[in-house]
Amino acid sequence: MARASDWIAAASSFIFLLFLFADAARTPEPSLRALATHGGKPNLVLPLVCSRSNSTRRSVLARRLLGEQVTARASMRLYDDYVTNGYYTAKLFIGTPPQEFALIVDSGSTVTYVPCSTCEQCGNHHQNLRFEPDLSSTYEPVKCNDDCTCDKEQKQCVYESQYTEMSSSSGVLGEDLISFGKESELKPQRAVFGCANSETGNLFNQHADGIIGLGRGELSIMDQLADKGVVTDSFSLCYGGMDVDGGAMVLGEITPPPDMVFSRSDPIRSPYYNIELEEIHVDGKLLHLDPRLFNSKDGTILDSGTTYAYLPEEAFMAFRDAILSNLHSLKRILGPDPNYSDICFSGAGSDVSELSKTFPVVDMVFGNGEKLSLSPENYLFRHSKVSGAYCLGVFQNEKDLTAILGGIIFRNTLVTYDRQNERIGFWKTNCSVLWERLHSDGGPTPGVLDFTNSRVNDSPTPVLPDLFESGVITFDMILNIAYAELLPHAKELEELIAHELQVDINQVNLINIASKGKSTMLRLAIFPAASSGFFSDTTVMDIVSFLSEHRVQLPENFGSYQYMVGMADNVVTGGNITRGFPPVYSPLDVARRIQAFGCTSS
Question: CB under 8 Å to 378, separation ≥6 — which residues?
Answer without folding.
Answer: 362, 408, 409, 410, 411, 412, 413
